[in-house]
């Protein structure tokens, strides 16, 4: 007999909740149980427009979802400025939590959230979907291969998308009272996570923002970049922007090999994802070409990466519920490191591009 799926509630009707609600229905060990909004009418409209089955409960407040005793886990897609308030309440209600990124406005807020999770024995995970794509595990195998890749030396990431005038005026990601971290919190979160992932989550010793960030009239970052430096000489750079063409690149270079990914956040196709590898590459005799040529690798999947995320999260929740296990600490640790570097970049911008030391 199959186990009862983990029952999810969602608080908030953000656009990203459409994608994650679909992921919950596609994950084999999860089910969509409830949706809550600040008004019953908005919750009903969201449920209807996204084809929620009639058994999904619809509530006219966030609190009603959290007070439902049958809700096991809650997905929180609210604006970042509201995370600390509602995430702490989710934890206090003993609900396991999938929290949209960026997880907080700063590390201090995030520590309040994780403290509440620890005190109440609930699992935490952020909503960085690409981490759960099967391709990511395959790329990790290559980066860990001493013979083909060697010691990591350089990482570069770029995440950008061109925004229309309506986005730049009205989206919550350009409002200082809603998502005040702007492009750094949205696109930059992915850049920093990818860098830390490539570096096996070793924190850099310092971060220095690059000159030329673009801010809107109310001081929210629309475009910026930074360099990261490690004790052993590794260097990383990234650029994130709401102002340039859609790009989602990772380049990781080792002593012996190179990894290239061109769609790391959202694959070009939902159920397959590719990357290219080069190892001990050189030139032909007359320097007219490369040898050996980089190889392309494609990983297929039966469910999209966001459903893999829900599946893994639900597995952790099930282990806690059935076996009395402690929550997995890997995910909040990775989130905190990402937030730590993100805030260091913001601090460097505010300090006229001075280097900011990262506490060990």
From TrEMBL:
Q: Which InterPro entries match?
A: Gfo/Idh/MocA-like_OxRdtase_N, GFO_IDH_MocA-like_dom, NAD(P)-bd_dom_sf
- Top-level taxon of the source organism: Eukaryota
Coiled coil feature spans: none
Single Gene Ontology MF annotation:
nucleotide binding
Q: In what residue span(s) does the GFO/IDH/MocA-like oxidoreductase domain sit?
A: 144-259
Family matches, as Pfam families? GFO_IDH_MocA, GFO_IDH_MocA_C3
| Limits of the Gfo/Idh/MocA-like oxidoreductase N-terminal domain | 6-125
Protein family: Belongs to the Gfo/Idh/MocA family.
Q: What's the protein name? A: Oxidoreductase family protein
Native source organism of the sequence: Quillaja saponaria (Soap bark tree)
């Amino acid at each position: 007999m199959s186990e009862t799926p983990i029952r999810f509630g969602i608080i908030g009707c953000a656009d990203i909740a459409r994608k994650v609600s679909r992921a919950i229905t596609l994950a084999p060990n999860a089910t969509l149980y409830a949706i809550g909004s600040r008004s019953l009418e908005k919750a009903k409209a969201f449920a209807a427009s996204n084809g929620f089955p009639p058994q999904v409960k619809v509530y006219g407040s966030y609190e009603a979802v959290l007070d439902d005793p049958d809700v096991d886990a809650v997905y929180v897609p609210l604006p970042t400025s509201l995370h600390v308030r509602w995430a702490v309440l989710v934890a206090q209600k003993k609900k396991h939590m999938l929290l949209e990124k960026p997880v907080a406005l700063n590390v201090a807020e995030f520590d309040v959230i994780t403290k509440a999770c620890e005190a109440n024995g609930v699992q935490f995970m952020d909503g960085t979907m690409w981490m759960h794509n099967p391709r990511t595990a395959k790329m990790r195998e290559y980066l860990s291969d001493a013979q083909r890749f060697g010691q990591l030396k350089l990482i570069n990431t770029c995440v950008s998308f061109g925004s229309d005038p309506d986005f730049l005026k009205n989206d919550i990601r350009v409002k200082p009272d809603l998502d005040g971290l702007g492009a750094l919190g949205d696109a930059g979160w992915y850049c920093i996570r990818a860098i830390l992932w490539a570096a096996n989550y070793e924190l850099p010793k310092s971060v220095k923002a690059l000159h030329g960030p673009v801010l809107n009239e109310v001081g929210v970052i629309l475009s910026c970049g930074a360099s990261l430096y490690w004790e052993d000489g590794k260097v990383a750079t990234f650029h994130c922007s709401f102002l340039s063409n859609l790009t989602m690149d990772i380049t990781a270079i080792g002593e012996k090999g190179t990894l290239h990914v061109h769609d790391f956040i959202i694959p070009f196709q939902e159920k397959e994802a590719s990357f290219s590898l080069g190892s001990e590459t050189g030139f032909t005799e007359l320097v007219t070409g490369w040898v050996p040529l980089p190889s392309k690798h494609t990983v297929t999947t039966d469910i999209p990466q966001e459903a893999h995320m829900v599946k893994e999260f639900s597995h952790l929740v099930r282990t806690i519920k059935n076996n009395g296990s402690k929550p997995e600490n890997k995910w909040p640790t990775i989130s905190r490191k990402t937030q730590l570097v993100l805030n260091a970049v913001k601090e460097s911008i505010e300090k006229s591009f001075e280097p900011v030391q990262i506490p060990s």
